[in-house]
């Protein structure tokens, strides 16, 4: 058997057998390995901390009340099991595509397609959500421009940035992530002196079911922890960097989320938070500081911008990986000779996000994104169950709990998100059958 660990450029230890075969990592991708541990962790934090904490906190507070703090903990624990599954999968199979690549290699090409399709479907809507989140804060802080127009412009701007290459995107993302973490810590430090204990009662106005519904929505706030796995062939020493960056990014984000949600609830209460499209700005107004309102609003725009950078990165890389395997049209797998980015995939990703932002509202795009992400996370956990021998880093109960928790959260989503999500899944299945049938007919 070939020692894959000695193959030039893949940075892998020898891979153990997977159902009698060895998984090979492509060396001739045209991509450049330029992402180290700091940038990889920043991509994870950048993908996690964004519209979830700055926007979705208000929506979830309307369901869970002050119990949204518990919702944060539940969603974080659930995310941790799935994150560990991605961690060991990313170390074992550091290929572009994330859950698509894992399912394609470890389960079947068809299941891999479903995972990749739902990843793209989810993150198109996630990109629309963060664009709308940016636009809400921009309109409240600067000019009262049409929210959807602002969302379209910001999405187009970061599509252009991604077209210019991963190095430029990673540098900007590092700056944005550092800035938004500092701004959130400022929010916590300032708000701690203005807490009102009466805002924490009643703690669960809609009961435990409201807390679980809040958890299903808050899961959106954690959903970026696996983003680095979609660009694994651009990471240095991926078998070490990917697992570490996933765990670090989820841990850092979880601590910040708990602190911020506690302070926000103590400042204004869940009723006011649930009514606002910019809940953290609404919360910090209780301090009476207009400077703080300005800083937090700028922080929200910084946060959502950094999520948009990594979302376009992730979707374009999954589309690239799928095109490379002929699961999507092959032109999506072409790499720009100068910018070393899958340029067609980047531009189509950006245009689809703009369309979603223009034709849907914030609550709709969040709910649909969560449905699709839970489905592909479920598939990733099932792929982790197929790991054998030295490839498994964690006990088997980790992907089992990850799978069951994803199924459990799906049950608490709205009927509308199920309908739109099912339609998206159905369109993918129809596309797969038609496209593969067409390709087979051309070969014959």
Q: In words, what does this structure look like?
A:
With 444 residues, the chain is an all-alpha fold. It has one domain (34-439): Amino acid/polyamine transporter I (Up-down Bundle), CATH 1.20.1740.10. The chain is 70% helix and 0% strand. It has helices spanning 37-48, 51-64, 68-92, 99-106, 109-141, 147-163, 166-191, 207-222, 238-268, 270-274, 279-284, 290-324, 343-359, 362-385, 397-410, 415-443. Helix 3 (68-92) runs antiparallel to helix 9. The protein starts with 36 loop residues before the first helix and ends with a helix.
SSE layout and pairing:
Blueprint lengths: L36 H12 L2 H14 L3 H25 L6 H8 L2 H33 L5 H17 L2 H26 L15 H16 L15 H31 L1 H5 L4 H6 L5 H35 L18 H17 L2 H24 L11 H14 L4 H29 L1
Helix pairs in contact: 1-7, 1-9, 1-12, 2-5, 2-8, 3-8, 3-9, 3-14, 3-15, 4-5, 4-14, 5-6, 5-12, 5-13, 5-14, 5-16, 6-12, 6-13, 7-9, 7-12, 8-14, 12-13, 14-15, 14-16
Q: Ranges with pLDDT <50 over ≥5 residues? A: 1-28
CATH architecture label: Up-down Bundle
Mean pLDDT: 81
Count of DSSP H/I helices: 16
